[in-house]
Amino acid sequence: MLTERQLFLNLIAQTSIAPMLLEPEYAEGIYVYDKKGIRYLDLIAGISVGNLGHRHPKVVDAIKKQADKYLHLMVYGEYVQSPQVQLAQLLNHHLPPHLNTVYFTNSGAEATEGAMKLAKRYTGRFEIICFNKSYHGSTQGALSLIGDEYFRNSFRPLLPGIIHLDYNDIKSLGAISDKTACVILEPVQAESGVVVPDFSFLKQLQKQCEKHKALLIFDEAQTGIGRTGDLFAFQKLGVSPDILLTAKALGGGLPLGAFISSHEIMSSLSQEPVLGHITTFGGNPMSCAAGLAALQTLFEEGWMKQVDAKEKLFHKLLQHPKINAIRSCGLLMALEFESEKFNKRVIEECWKYELITDWFLFAPNCLRIAPPLIITEEEIETACRIVLQAIEIASSEIK
Ligand code: PMP
Hints:
Blueprint: H1 4-11, E1 24-28, E2 31-34, E3 39-42, H2 45-48, H3 57-67, H4 82-93, E4 101-105, H5 108-123, E5 127-131, H6 140-145, H7 149-152, E6 162-165, E7 180-185, H8 199-212, E8 215-219, H9 233-237, E9 243-246, E10 257-261, H10 263-266, H11 285-300, H12 307-317, E11 325-329, E12 332-336, H13 340-352, E13 355-356, E14 358-360, E15 363-369, H14 377-397
Parallel strand pairs: 3-13, 5-6, 5-7, 7-8, 8-9
Antiparallel strand pairs: 1-2, 2-3, 4-10, 9-10, 11-12, 12-15, 14-15
Helix pairs in contact: 3-11, 4-11, 12-14, 13-14
The structure holds 4'-deoxy-4'-aminopyridoxal-5'-phosphate.
4'-deoxy-4'-aminopyridoxal-5'-phosphate (PMP) is lined by residues 107-109, 112, 135-137, 186, 190, 219, 221-222, 247, 257.
């Protein structure tokens, strides 16, 4: 009889050349337990999703309560569903006044698609400016924006009118013109190995967008919901977008994304054509109930206030001559090594010591650290000890 792992490899479409193959039994807090009872410390929170850890009791409770009321009832935007309305209201409360209208989606990629459509519809233009080494999702529109030729090339033709610039390069911003519908970027670029742009770059970008009446879109799928110590990274960086994208941690562990803008901009999706973006499951009541509980808990339990101290502790503990750089914005961090080979060996060793970590899509020589924000000082010490031990082992093998 085939094992479940063999069935997984046979029956579940494979896209990774080296799947992690963990067989989870259950997860709680910062730990994932496998079927043999081995406890793994999750240093990447399911790729920046579990900001409150796995199965936070208040989130689980909200899911159960919502399950007792209703699940899917109607496609997007027809019924007045409390979990959606309340989550939008709470987001509103913590965002600048112009980001007051929320469109809930299923995922980050769908939020990207919706935002691109909104910018095209509102401006009447189709040119979109984006950045090398950026990631905004894997659907065809979002893939057209992906800042890496290897990942996009096999799927051509992609969207026309897409211009890629170098991230944090002020000189290139002259490409923004009266033809530009929008400029989309991550205010902290995650998959390039956590690159925080200069304030002057973001400011100039905003100025150029204002001058040419192009919309500025920030994709905060990875940096949002407290990961950087503020609700969204742009609130720390001091430049606000016209459209904000969020996903990943937004649903408290259930699938949920959103694009958020002003009432004026968003209302263009309700005319010519009506139903300018349609989704069956976007804003699903279970996801919104979980997201609402997660967001309330994030504020009530004060997790964002601890991010800065925890970030500093990682920096203090992770000292090793083989670490070329540590780049971070809150608890989104990249440890840079000399090569992909070295990094992957370190990651492999971390896994042997039951520490879950990973690399970055466009920075395979960087180790990913993005733990649940609830990680304690002791747990940070344990995680760093394992990473340093793994670096020692890799160093002894790879000269
Ligand atoms: N934008 C960013 C910045 C992301 O990191 C991701 C996912 N890694 C996405 C968009 C796409 O989100 P999803 O996988 O939910 O489609």
